Amino acid sequence: MRPFTHDYDEGLTICIAGDIFLAAACISYVGPFTGIYRDRLVQGWRGRCQDLGVPVSDPFSLQATLATPMSIREWTLQVREYQTDFIVTSSQ
Question: Measured between alpha carbons, how far is 32 from 53 in angstroms, rounded to an integer?
């Protein structure tokens, strides 16, 4: 059985099934934990996927799986604008 993959123009092969599984697990489970523990969980899940023959990207990135660099940049700019406005208005 050939894994379902998608090739991007940059030549990167993303393993859709495994990456989406890991993304869903991250979204639904890792929120309340520390960054170090989150990394350990994801590495454990990645290892289990590999043991079961489910292809996953190496390294796995939640941001790369669910967003484009441009959308992340736009969001970052919007957050910075909001934070600046909040600081300005709260100090008056």
Answer: 29
